[in-house]
Amino acid sequence: ANRLRNEYFGEYAAALSRMAARVIIENADSIKPEHETSARLVLKALVSNGVAMSIAGSSRPASGSEHMFSHALDRIAPKPALHGEQCGVGTIMMMYLHGGNWQEIRDALKKIGAPTTARELGIEDKYIVEALLQAHSIRPERYTILGNGLTPSAAEKVARI
What is the DSSP string of the chain? Predict the structure, then answer.
């Protein structure tokens, strides 16, 4: 987005957001429901992302293609899942598209007990594929890994990871 559309990129905000993600990934084994220590870890990550967004002047450091995917699911799925759960599954898929370590994200979410697949979200594959096809149009002014959209075959492949 910065290179293609000259969108602002702040290294400090990006580093803060990356740090928040690392805290969750590296402590996934200890994040459990109704544990005060878990709540503190998650709260630190959320506050760090809030600060990153304030520095950037937009939600960009903590909201990208995974959120666009979640919002597309909200529009088309008869019974969408929770926003955070959809974003978690979306994060796995978007990291796959980036060529990054999507397995690390999947494994961390599994340890926490969060859904990692469409089936675990309780959403049929056809809606996941359709959300992947529509997600780029949710915020057309915001360039992401989804670019101008995925092909149907690419969306089907991503939905199956």
Answer: -HHHH-----HHHHHHHHHHHHHHHHTGGG--TT-HHHHHHHHHHHHHHHHHHHHHTSSGGG-SHHHHHHHHHHHH-SS---HHHHHHHHHHHHHHHHTS-HHHHHHHHHHHT---SHHHHT--HHHHHHHHHHGGGTSTTS--TTTT---HHHHHHHHT-
Euclidean distance between CA atoms 65 and 136, whole angstroms: 7
Tally of CB atoms within 10 A around 36? 7
Angstrom distance (rounded) from CA 115 to CA 110: 7
Q: Are 104 and 21 contacting, i.e. CB atoms less than 8 angstroms apart?
A: no
* Predicted TM-score (pTM) of this structure: 0.92
Could you give the CA distance from residue 141 to residue 21 in angstroms, rounded to a whole number?
25
pLDDT value for 127? 98
The rounded average pLDDT for each run of 10 residues, N- to C-terminus, in the chain (161 residues) is 81 95 96 90 96 95 96 97 98 98 98 96 97 96 93 97 91
CA distance 71 to 155: 16
